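Suppose a colleague, Dr. K., hands you the sequence of a protein chain of 123 amino acids and asks what its three-dimensional shape might be. Before reaching for any lab equipment, you can write down a predicted structure in token form. Begin with the sequence itself:
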Amino acid sequence: QVDLVESGGGLVQAGGSLTISCVVSERIFSTYNMAWFRQRPGQRRALVADIGKFGDSPFYEDTVKGRFTISRDNAKHTLILQMNSLEPEDTAMYYCAASRTFRSPSPSVYTDWGQGTQVTVSS
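The predicted structure, expressed as tokens, is then:
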């Protein structure tokens, strides 16, 4: 198994920016495809963005495309999500996830998860 720890969440006004990160306790970080999911109260976790093992082919859910940027630093074992032009609808618990197989919008593909970091956007 692998441990994932998110940080950087907080409260931000609509239109503002926030950056969250995930540190992964795995010696060979590049073994994993990585993703950010988010979950609102009473709803299922949904994919926000994902990225390949070597930072290749980042993918974004339509509502965050052009506003969010996913990146990774394999040397530092860190996954990053930069969020700009935040909207109240972005308010959610954000989770870092790792997959040893392939990338997918399905949470079941991701076998390792962080504890989550809360992002709240005020209107």
